[in-house]
Amino acid sequence: MKTSPYPHLQQRDAKPVTVSDLARMKAEGEKIACLTAYDASFAALEDRAGVDVVLVGDSLGMVVQGNSTTVPVTVDDMVYHSRITAAGLSRAFLMTDLPFLSYGTKHDALETSRRLMGEGMAQMVKFEGGEIQADTIEHLSMRGVPVCAHIGLQPQLVHKMGGFKVQGRGDAAQTMIRDAKLLEESGADVILLECVPSALGAEITANAKVPVIGIGAGPDTDGQILVIYDILGLSPGRKPRFVKNYMDNADTLDAAVTEYVAEVKDGRYPGAEHAFS
Ligand code: KIV
To answer: Per the UniProt record, which EC number(s) apply here (predicted)?
Structure first.
């Protein structure tokens, strides 16, 4: 078991999830339940509820820091939040985002990953991009860095793309299918697919040997991920279609997160109302 300065927050006898467990879950058809967390208390809550993968997302730039995009987040921010999130975990696998322009070269990507894994205790790094990231993924993978390739909607490109929009419609679908294959062949251990039509989510998942985690990518991906503040109804303003507020039918935070895990595991989440066509 991982050791923590906050042992009271942890499940004492749970076997930690590994990257091999994620591959096994895909092979056995067990859905992978993932959520973001940004600190030890939420991490421990998610761990207790049976979340398999906790992501320290650069969404912290929006939901924790109050910015309108993820662009201002720094490597120091990610290292700090990753470390304090790791402190709350006992069983769940910890993945952490590389922030905007911290992986523009292979050298930068390796150095940022070294900090996130060495200081931030991350067990896998995630970063955005299709074909353009193939060399970087190979570079990291060959040096022992587990990688999650984030394709589909890439929030760090918000200013380039002019907003947060569904991706992979029309001809773009074939490009995304090719990108997913290429990134897997380059050494990605997990693919994260954001905001794409359900049919495309299903096709990429069926073709992938590695687990595919979806957010707004339909019911057929190998797992689901959401932002913790969204499922607890804490995020103000208009919600993306794929968000479900689990506090609507729960009396406690534990009950809400436990229900999210149960619904991902048995396929009740996401419903048709959370998907794009
Ligand atoms: O930063 C983030 O929270 C993400 C999402 C996929 C959940 O990348």
So the answer is: 2.1.2.11
Residue 194 known to be catalytic: yes
DSSP H or E segment with residue 198: helix 198-207
Count of helix runs (H) and strand runs (E) in the chain: 11, 8
* 66: alpha, beta or left? (left if phi > 0; alpha if psi -120 to 50): left
Active-site residue, from 46, 128, 184, 194: 194
pLDDT value of position 121: 98
Q: How far apart are CA 225 and CA 54, in angstroms?
A: 9
Q: Which domains does the chain have, with CATH numbers?
A: 17-274 (3.20.20.60)
pTM comes to 0.95
CB-based burial, 213-252: b 16+ in 10 Å, e otherwise: bbbbbbbbbbbbbbbbbbbbbebeeeebebbbebbeebee
Closest CA to 204 of 217, 187, 188, 189: 217
Mean pLDDT by 10 residues, the chain (277 residues): 52 84 98 98 98 98 96 98 98 98 98 98 98 98 98 95 91 97 98 98 98 98 98 92 97 98 98 96
The alpha carbon of 250 and the centre of ligand 1 are apart by a number of angstroms equal to 24
Q: Phi and psi for 52 in degrees, rounded to 5? A: -85, -40
Q: What is the pLDDT of residue 161?
A: 87
Q: Report the candidate in 271, 266, 276, 254 with the shortest Cα–Cα distance to residue 29.
A: 266
pLDDT value for 267: 98
